[in-house]
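quick one, two chains, predict together pls
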Amino acid sequence: MPQYMLLVYQEDVDEAEQAERERTLPLFVELHRSLKEAGLLVSVQRLHSPQSATSVRVRDGDTEITDGPFAVTKEILAGYYIVECADLDEALKQAARVPAAVFGTVEVRPMMPAAEWLERARAAGADVPDEAVEDMA
Amino acid sequence: MSGVHPADPVAGAIAETFRDERAIVLATLIRQSGDFQVAEDAVQEAFESALTVWRRDGIPNSPGAWITTAARRRAIDRLRRDRSVADRAERLADLMRLDAQHEEVPSMDDESSLVDDRLRLIFTCCHPALAMPARVALTLRTLGGLTTAEIARGFLVAEPTMGKRIVRAKRKIAEAHIPYRVPPDEELPDRLRGVMRVVYLIFNEGYSATGGDRLVREELCDEAIRLGELLCRLMPDDSEVWGLSALMLLHDARRAARVDSDGRYTALGDQDRSLWDQDRIGEGLARLYRAVRLRRPGEYQLQAAITALQIQSPDAEHTDWAQIAELYGALGRLTPSPVIELNRSVAVGMADGPAAGLALLEPLLADPALERYQPMYAAHAELLTRAGDSTGAARAYEQAIALTENAVERSELERRLAAVATE
């Protein structure tokens, strides 16, 4: 079954509004339980705020470390789900159930199966053995 | 397929098969192969090879069956090479099993499975996860069989841009696993509205555009009408499907009269009615009655009914404006919009006199959505003229003229302005 990442974006808000959102936790618990029961949930994770992010780039062999996220945006990546669904319609339906979809945005991205990644690399001329698939994901 | 020579029976047979069977063959092969691109390439190649083979061996008894078999074999070849297609092994096995059957055996549920495949294709091409321009392009490409170049010309877009748009859409269908199916009942009404929006947009693009290749634009109208008819055949219990088909036919019946000999737009009241296509009008009305009999009103039926009333009246004076006003009222309750409210005020002004029309129109003057909407000022000026307020009418005409880009329309408005100014 195809897998999808549901990326949960929401606006960075002040403490009072954040507190209000924290109180919605039972809704998330309910959703996660139901996704697990349906056998759809691969993983789910909330992220700390982008203020705690550090970005790393290696240029000409030098590692550059900078404080902050890759891009500063009004809406921040707050967490993600990985779900296994029959097709996009099913994934969109689950995305609409994420409580944060009411105030934020849930982006649904299909995950590329390791075999397809391998296939693409080979098509581009990479020399990779079949067993590599095991170590790819 | 263009360039058909009437004296060339093979080319003629291919063109006919392309027109009648291509979408059906493609729709089924997409389901069987599980991949848009594979199926489309295979069908394309099958038609190309038909030209050589039919010239050599003669036109087959059942050209559609020949194309089906040829396309399936090419899909098998492609699937053997292309390992990225999902469920490739099962797909290959299915296709090879079908290929091993000696001939195309029509099964009991053949007709309904063909219908289902085309519906699947329509719903997939019009899936809400695709951007609107991609839905339109993909629908024209796969269901209409238009070439990328033709679609690009119809939408005044560069051909490579249109090509990329179509390729991206097909890639998204494959990568995101957009399902190839008719939506379940609980989603069907919404999704069908989405499909109708795509079809009507194709029609309007062909109907209202003033620039671009005229032949291609007519092709867009014809294609939208064909898609509308297909929806009627596939979903005959939905009243709006009939309403949309009726609406497009009733508009299109006046196609030849909409533009004068200099290629300029002609308003309904000034059109040469002898140029109207009476067969199309008859067909449009029949479809409208069929829609109304299903007793589930909707926006397309209401628009078609308004158009029908206008078409069936000999002139503005003998038009049933009270009923048109009522229909606009119903339309506005269904899909509220200031433009519909404006049209209603004009109809009321015709039915109950200018004062009643002005009472409805004047609140709209403050609506920011209509601030630069020229028809509102022109309608305001008309109503004021009839109400005897020539100063107000002159001011409204000036506002309308300032917003008019079309030279013919501008000179008409200037003529009317001069008429009220001399009163």
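The longest strand of chain A covers residues 75-84.
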